[in-house]
């Protein structure tokens, strides 16, 4: 039952996952809670395709909606690693310049 923008009781079922390699053991757990829908997303990449020695982990809050969070989860790391600043070793500036 929906009450405004929140449910009358939380959805407490969790979707959890893990992944690991020789460097990392990573876990995540997602829960909808009181919201009408689960709009968040996350990314766990142990080895970036374009930079195998680098891992990428991110959480995307779905304030812009589930589609935007899902899109960011699938593509943001590609936009970052395509930036010239990234290839010069300036990850912070690459993050700032992604649009």
Automatic annotation (TrEMBL):
Q: Does the keyword Phosphoprotein apply?
A: no
Keyword terms of this UniProt record: Hydrolase, Metal-binding, Protein phosphatase
One GO molecular-function entry: metal ion binding
Q: Name one Pfam family in it.
A: PP2C
Q: Which residues form the PPM-type phosphatase domain?
A: 25-99
SUPFAM superfamilies per UniProt: PP2C-like
Q: Which domain of life is it from?
A: Eukaryota
Protein name, please? Jg2675 protein
Species of the source: Pararge aegeria aegeria
